[in-house]
Amino acid sequence: MRSEFDLIKRYLTGLGSARDDVICGVGDDAAIVTPSADATLLLALDTLVDGVHFPTDCPAESVGYRALAVNLSDIAAMGGRPCWALVGLTLPAVDEAWVAGFARGLDWLARAHDVAVVGGDVTRGPLTISVQITGSCAAPPLRRDGARVGDELWVSGRPGEASAGLEAWQAGERSSSRWQGLRNAFLAPQPRVLLGQALCGVASAAIDVSDGLLADAGHIGSASGVALHITGSRLQPSARLQAWAGPAQAQTAYLAGGDDYELCFTAPPAARRQVMAAARAARTPVRCIGAVRAGEGLYLDGQALAANKFAGYEHFGS
Amino acid sequence: MRSEFDLIKRYLTGLGSARDDVICGVGDDAAIVTPSADATLLLALDTLVDGVHFPTDCPAESVGYRALAVNLSDIAAMGGRPCWALVGLTLPAVDEAWVAGFARGLDWLARAHDVAVVGGDVTRGPLTISVQITGSCAAPPLRRDGARVGDELWVSGRPGEASAGLEAWQAGERSSSRWQGLRNAFLAPQPRVLLGQALCGVASAAIDVSDGLLADAGHIGSASGVALHITGSRLQPSARLQAWAGPAQAQTAYLAGGDDYELCFTAPPAARRQVMAAARAARTPVRCIGAVRAGEGLYLDGQALAANKFAGYEHFGS
């Protein structure tokens, strides 16, 4: 049940005034606004809730890191450069050690991406973190609705590892070196900021993979009014994902696991060399997994996937 | 105990990179950033928590209204013009009637101030709302640290009414016309956006009164390195506040009640006519309640107020 998205669409769409300086409002990874003739800004906000978006025993450093990472990923999916962050931290009690760890994790990632944390709010209540990020964009931002028939469908990195890493964490695998890569994929995902920037002007559409590859690819398809055909033999779950989950479950995690924060994007076949150059420049692996065709919906090796097959990841607490 | 502010200052100050385009980071009502040579933007984020910042039986319309109002007030205190809002809504369950009411209250206020709601996030969890606002500013923004010895101290509107209105609401006074004005001061405070804009270039310092007049005036004093001397006879609790609370408690509410979202500001005596003109233009009453002198701390009729006298409103749930 994607009730949260239904709510957004029905009640939080179109609120307030229609302003001329809003290029894109609710409905993409970030809003696009133009404060002046020579500035295009991207605005995003994401909330993480204890026990819903991370396990209660998640290290504070990881909570701080991830609270920013999910927002950087929104800017990455638009091809932007993150600039300024605001942090809304709601805490049940004053736990200085926890807050210090939270701040360390957030600070580390902010510095890595040249982001300044310029303000926010600390309140008392159930543990909840909302981070807002403002980014800039030189070229026209990447959007979800630009996929065209004939384009190829791509994904970055190693989808499915984050959900397996969360499984490993929850199964008590907290220190073994064997599953460290998977754990890190959940605890400290790498937002694909450089890749997004490099794909600006190259990709025709992009989205970040937060709810699972099929769910998020589906948003590109529906926003663009096209069908997406995925080729099963092109999906390549990583060796460690297969070692953890077994081959069949690894493919399920690859297609439907959440929290990866990879980029899923489309580009014309003629841009294939530019896509590969962008991936090299960003030092991020990318893989062509399918094609954009006329129609609607998602297909795996020619078989239509039922809507509930790619309804999206509802986080582990659901 | 102002533990929340200690936490902000100690752990959430100076996080991330020091960027040249950040004019003012953590420590004022909003951050000031300059995305391009001809754009100055204000960024603020505030969180409201069920049972902490509003009673659980607060009407949904009021929750939506207030979630935006507290952010508009931050922009008002900087003299800015609010433009775009993001809404992070965390809900325990899908309650369509509640969300519809929340959206109505927020939409009404957003339209009244020409603000576009351009995105956000809806998640499952304990009821918490984080709203982020981006504003623009033509003149240099008003800050907390500009009060100078010799300036006069001013406050807008009717401080203390919001805390009395909350008391009335909690005492079961939910429909009587006698207390409607007080109830509305809490349920639907008017952010002083026009006044803040009109005071830009006139006032020397400003802050919004969210934690109580003394507490917030104290922030101007400490940020500016000056003492603030308040004249008791100049404080004028409204007739309805006095009717509700009695004369003595009315003065306490005036000085220490929270959630007013009035503006407290300083200006040189020579600017008195401009201050009055700004108030007329904004159709908002203002009152001179004291003076800025050398030294530090807050004084009422020459008596130093102990730090805990103006430690600030910690919301009714504390």
Structure summarized in a few sentences:
2 copies of one chain form a homodimer. Chain A has 318 residues and is of the alpha+beta class.
Task: Explain how this protein is built.
2 copies of one chain form a homodimer. Chain A is an alpha+beta fold and 318 residues long. Chain A folds into 2 domains: 134 residues, PurM-like, N-terminal domain (60s Ribosomal Protein L30, Chain: A, 2-Layer Sandwich), CATH 3.30.1330; 167 residues, Phosphoribosyl-aminoimidazole Synthetase, Chain A, domain 2, CATH 3.90.650.10. In chain A, 34% of the residues lie in helices and 26% in strands. The first copy, chain A, contains 10 helices and 13 strands. A 7-stranded mixed β-sheet of chain A has the order 8-10-7-11-9-12-13. In chain A, strands 1-2-3-6-4-5 form a 6-stranded mixed β-sheet. The longest helix of chain A is centred in the N-terminal third of the chain and has 18 residues. The C terminus of chain A is likely disordered. The interface between A and B is large, with 79 and 80 residues.
Q: Which SSEs are present, and which pair or pack?
A:
The structure is a homodimer of 318-residue chains.
Chain A: H1 3-11, E1 22-24, E2 31-36, E3 39-49, H2 60-77, E4 81-91, H3 96-112, E5 116-124, E6 128-136, E7 152-156, H4 161-170, H5 180-187, H6 193-199, E8 205-209, H7 213-224, E9 227-230, H8 239-245, H9 247-256, E10 262-267, H10 272-281, E11 286-293, E12 297-300, E13 303-304
Parallel strand pairs in A: 4-5, 9-12
Antiparallel strand pairs in A: 1-2, 2-3, 3-6, 4-6, 7-10, 7-11, 8-10, 9-11, 12-13
Helix pairs in contact in A: 2-3, 2-6, 4-5, 6-10, 8-9
